[in-house]
Amino acid sequence: MGSNPNLEQEINDHIKTLSRGLMQTNYSVAYQGYNALYRIGEPVIPCLKETILKTDWSNTKYKELSFYLTGIVCLIHDINEEEGKKIIEHVVSNGCPSHIKALLHSLSHFSEADFIKYEIRNIVILAHKDVTAKYDIKPLIEKWLENIPEHDLSELVRIYVVRPEDIDASGTYTPMLYKIALAWNNTFKTNSLVFKLLLLSTEHTFYHEIGHHICRHTFGQDPVQEKEADDYAAKIMSKAHPRIGRLVKLLRAIGIIKKK
Questions:
Q1: I need a surface site. Which of 18, 51, 64, 92 has the fewest CB within 10 A?
Q2: What's the predicted TM-score (pTM) here?
Q3: Which long-range contacts link 189-194 to residues 24+ away (Cβ below 8 Å)?
């Protein structure tokens, strides 16, 4: 990289932008630096690795430093999965707080080799091969994303469609990493009523996780956060399926469904 001082300066400038955004928890600034470095690709990895390896992360308690470390490692992993795994192993083996370990493990949990990868609306979609072998997921994700306003998808980086055994819920949102994992647990025939009902449930879960992203919710099952995500999902479902929305309103009005 020393043979191209202009590139070196560009990388350093973008790293400063990324670092400032991560340390100040300014997501827009961090995302700007992240995208610029990701586009450059492999040449940024040595500089990013240096920022990780020169620091002792074993006593990191401050949230800002957690964001900083996770953001840098996530970028390395997105550029080169193997390099990312090596960095994660280094940080974990040298000791780090449990919350950082959980974040790093969430990065290394999935391998791109197990997924079909494509982009929809500038969001990377990774659908597990075991799922795509049975169902054509792409048109569904395209259709669901069409129901989401553009600004609501801002900074969302990745959407994983995974097997139910891959995660402990029907869907998850990972703060800071801006990624959603959606469990596909529908093994019924595509023209059956059960399949269609489960598909609606999965769609609702998808919008629920988008709701977490819009609100930039943190980790944990917080009742307030869950209600905000549910309210968002209900709003999008009502627009996407007006008849269902009217039915839900009617059932609430007559007391069959309780209002929140």
A1: 64
A2: 0.68
A3: 190/135
